[in-house]
């Protein structure tokens, strides 16, 4: 049992260190030697848990996917309106990306690298948006004339765009920024009867969902600090690329 707990702590420490390294330098330039050093473990321990860099990236993508699905399920279970659920899930996603280095790295890798498992986080997010818009249409809360497929594409492009912009300025994922986005969009999306019942800032369910979904990641960070005696370097803006970089 003690060995299993130690193995779990080591794996969590490696994931957290890998998240920071991938965010700082990108997948191609990330170094396994740096990841193992920041996690406070040997190179052999790293390869015991993850065969190679691709396996580490896949684990981070899976973690981001699980967290997003967990938050969406929690929001969906508490909602009274499909459109409010759509607003709430977007706030939960933004909050996850702000608060969890592991989720943020997994989302970036899931959008920018070719996964071996077919996992596509942008596609998952698009399916979630399309499903909620369909429910809103079926429930007659969607304004007349809204083309669901085109609206879903616009919503996904906008929200994923905020994530990209947040890599150099975290304010793009702030609650205030996302609230302003929904204040502009909801009058176009919702019927006149539905609009007054919608909260563009997200309901309490959205923020409880993101807090629950990031609880594991927070525990991982704490365990890593206790296990290694240090906290992996924070993932700041990407290191400026050299002249040869694209």
Report what the structure shows:
- This protein has about 250 residues and is mainly α.
- The chain is built from eleven helices and no strands.
- Residues about 215-245 have low confidence and may be disordered.
Give the helix/strand layout.
Layout: H1 2-29, H2 32-39, H3 43-49, H4 53-78, H5 82-99, H6 101-112, H7 121-138, H8 148-166, H9 175-189, H10 204-213, H11 215-228
Helix pairs in contact: 1-2, 1-4, 1-6, 1-11, 4-5, 4-6, 4-10, 5-6, 5-7, 5-9, 5-10, 7-8
Give a brief outline of the structure.
71% of the residues lie in helices and 0% in strands.
Order of helices and strands: HHHHHHHHHHH
Tell me the overall shape: elongated
What are the low-pLDDT stretches, counting only 5+ consecutive residues below 50?
216-246
Percent of residues in beta strands: under 5%
What does the largest sheet look like?
none
| Classification by helices and strands | mainly alpha
What labels describe this entry?
246 residues; mainly alpha
